[in-house]
Amino acid sequence: MQAGPSSTLPSTLPTALNWLPLALALILAGCGISRPIQPPKHPSLPPPSPIPAEIDNIPEPVPRSEPKSARGNPPFYTVLGKRYFVLDSAEGYLERGVASWYGPGFHAASTSNGERYDMYAMTAAHKTLPLPSYVQVTNLSNGKHVIVRVNDRGPFKDGRIIDLSYTAAAKLDMLKAGTTFVEVRALTPMQKASPPPAPTATSDLYVQAGAFAAEANAARLLGQLRSKGVDNAFVREDQVGGKTLYRVRVGPIPSVNEFDRVVQRLRALGVSDARLAAN
User: Fold this and answer.
1) Closest by alpha carbon to 259, among 186, 144, 197, 177?
2) Which pLDDT belongs to residue 21?
3) Which residues, including other chains, have CB under 8 Å from residue 67's CB and lie 6 or more apart?
């Protein structure tokens, strides 16, 4: 860097300039002006360890009719470049996939519908269900199930369909693993006395790459997958509403890590809507 006119100034000037901010700060302090300390936006409350026995006694919510929240129910919204469309109704919603849970880092923070997140309550976050909604979540690895009230948005990690509160995750016995395969079924107020029976535990899980009414379309996708090295892909025939449906599946899938790997591989091959399926 070439020296400019300032290079001829006395060498003591930079040192004096360095003292200016401190001098100004002292003057302002003398005038009684100070900058307030802001409290943390997301106060955290670490979870108890080990899990207290009373967590099992925290009651599950009872599905009831509630108006949609004024916040958290836009027709659609965008997160990380992806657009999500909020469902008009939760009725009939049923999906299988991977659940995660969230806790201390979000405790007492505002949820998407404006309530405060309580990691010890029986709640959950979902990307598209109306807020609030009630769902039955079943851990497919052990058959345990809970009912939670959905009052938040998320999770936004690929391959995750629901984010559970600390207590809900504890009751499903998934805290240590962090994730697990689940079935999520919406419940209506009419089902509060007798929700549908929860599915039993199963290890017979697969990734579904597509479902077709025409066998030729299923065979075409199967051939494409096998040509790219997906050797455990196959076609399963099912009767749905009196018609044959040809489902292209990959598996079986023994773990969440393997599920993530297969979904990522299928996405790289152009299959964008791969999902968890059970036989």
Assistant:
1) 177
2) 43
3) none
- The pairing of beta strand 133-139 with beta strand 205-212: unpaired
- Residues ≥6 apart with Cβ < 8 Å to 74: 86
CB atoms under 10 Å from CB of 122, counted, come to: 20
Quote the pTM value.
Answer: 0.78
Is 1 a residue whose pLDDT tops 90? no
CA gap 201, 140 in Å, rounded: 5
Q: What is the pLDDT of residues 24-66, one digit of tens each?
A: 343 333 333 333 333 334 444 455 445 556 888 899 999 999 9
What is the DSSP code (8-state) at residue 53? G
Tokens 């345990």 found at: 144
DSSP helix/strand/coil, 248: strand
Given CA atoms 103, 108, 110, 113 in this order, what sign does their dihedral have? positive
Cβ neighbours of residue 84 closer than 8 Å, sequence gap 6 or more: 76, 77, 78, 127, 128
- Residue 211 in tokens: 């479902």
159 within 8 A of 95, measured Cβ to Cβ: no
- Report the number of secondary-structure helices (H) and strands (E) in the chain: 4, 12
Token code pair at residue 132: 């609030």
Dist. CA 118–CA 139, nearest whole Å: 22
Burial label for 159, CB within 10 Å (0-12, 13-18, 19+), is buried
Name which of 83, 90, 84 is nearest 66 in CA terms: 90
